[in-house]
Amino acid sequence: MLSTTISDFRNNMKSYLDNVSENFETLILNRGEGSGVVIMSLEEYNSLNATSHELSSRANEKRLDSAIEKLKAGQGEEKSLIEE
Fold first, then answer.
1. 9/73 Cα distance (integer angstroms)
2. Rounded Cα–Cα distance for residues 45 and 4 (Å)
3. Closest by alpha carbon to 2, among 70, 18, 80?
4. pTM, to two decimals
5. R_g over Cα of the chain
């Protein structure tokens, strides 16, 4: 996780944005007195939203936990994808 001031970000914007998008870094722009802005790649943002959705209900969370435990116990199934 990176952190900088708005002035430094303004002066080095391309470098910061390249680092965020190429290295999956999260950038915090400090705005003083406990406030700030977070910048992350679109891919990271979409991933967080997908995770949030999957864990949004207790039923989904239990289903995912069960699947993880089965895989850890060696009870997973390998399936091939259908190619068209």
1. 48
2. 20
3. 18
4. 0.64
5. 19
